[in-house]
Amino acid sequence: MNIPTPHIEAKKGDFAKTVLMPGDPLRARFVAEHYLEDAVLVNSVRQMSGYTGTYKGKRVSVMASGMGMPSMGIYSYELFNGYDVENIIRIGTAGALREDLHLRDLVFGIGACTNSNFAAQYQLPGSFAPTASFPLLRKAVEAAEKREGMVGNLLSSDTFYSDSNLDVNWRKMGVLAVEMEAAALYMNAARTGKQALAICTISDSIVTGEATNSAEREKSFHDMMELALEIAPE
Questions:
Q1: In sequence order, which residues have a C-beta less than 8 Å from that of residue 196 and are 6 or more positions away?
Q2: How far apart are CA 141 and CA 82, in angstroms?
């Protein structure tokens, strides 16, 4: 893949081997400004801010993915294939599908169920099961021992506003929470032989109706940010 890519203006070597990917460009900037030393802006195309700096001496990048699987699909593909990125850790938000998941709890997506047709491009003779990379998942769970969280399946949904309420059916199958990007990330990682993990913070509850506001989602989910930075491979 030629670089710069259609959506990233960075030069070869501008990205670290590990990239943290929130959906929100403002969360990417928050991570860069509050956690990274000597952070440099390496991408600003379409306001999808990307930065590279160091965290406790190791080189790490953070870049927004935008909302939804098409957007995550574009940026993770270009990072994996154009910029030699080896690991992408999604640091996003999710809506709880269980009563025992509360605001600000962490969810580690061992797998990502989806209502998307993203996998159709691979022309497989069946259904593909998008899963996290076990080395990253194991490191995250071990590092999160003292934090509130669960490991299990996410639902990556193509729809935020839906005419049908199918959440109860996913909940019956043990799905923990719903978000919009992990399945595309996991499939791109599988196709390129790279590593990926989605660590999500519960921002609202489909069950109880509790919710955080946009400012809290941008700036207050420190456990997720710090955990991802701690486990980021060099």
A1: 76, 87, 88, 89, 90, 132, 133, 136, 185, 186, 188, 189
A2: 30
Rounded to whole angstroms, how far apart are CA atoms 88 and 106?
Answer: 17
> What is the rounded distance in angstroms from the CA atom of residue 16 to the CA atom of residue 214?
28
Report the candidate in 157, 5, 185, 160 with the shortest Cα–Cα distance to residue 91.
185
Per annotation, catalytic residue among 14, 105, 204, 223: 204
Q: Where would I find the H helices in 60-173? A: 69-82, 134-143, 167-172
User: Tell me, what's the pLDDT at 10?
Assistant: 96
Identity of residue 217? R
SS3 label, residue 141: helix
Provide CB contacts within 8 A for 210, sequence distance 6+.
Answer: 102, 103, 204
What number of H helices and E strands is found in the chain? 7, 9
Give yes or no for a contact between 7 and 45, defined as CB atoms under 8 angstroms apart. Answer: yes
Q: Does position 218 have pLDDT exceeding 70, yes or no? A: no
pLDDT of 149: 84
Query: Is 204 an annotated catalytic residue?
Result: yes
Phi and psi at residue 217, to the nearest 5°: -65, -30
Could you report the per-residue pLDDT of 28-75, keeping only the tens digit for each?
999 999 999 999 999 999 989 999 999 999 999 999 999 999 999 999
